[in-house]
Specification:
By secondary structure, this protein is mainly α. The protein has 3 helices and no strands. It has one domain.
């Protein structure tokens, strides 16, 4: 399973309960479409920090960085030191 699939599964499990994982495309805007609100952004950042060993202080609190799966994965690849990314 690649990074995009892992992030997609997390988002569906946490924010889109009951939806089909395959319906969430990499470029679907999570913020503009109300899937992730400000509290959801904090939960998503916490998950990314714990899962990919990125210190919270190194994660920008800019919703644009987390607006879709493409941006989230790009950020993780650029920042994470975890070998599994």
């Amino acid at each position: 399973m690649d990074l995009e699939d892992r992030i997609r599964e997390h988002i569906v499990a946490e924010f889109l309960s009951g939806e089909d994982v395959t319906d969430l495309t990499d470029d679907f805007d999570l913020v503009a479409n109300g899937v992730v609100d400000s509290l959801g952004l904090v939960r998503l950042i916490s998950h990314i920090s714990k899962t990919y060993a990125i210190p919270v202080d190194d994660i920008p609190l800019d919703p644009a960085s987390f607006r879709d799966i493409e941006h989230i994965c790009s950020f993780i690849r650029q920042t994470s030191t975890a070998a599994s990314v």
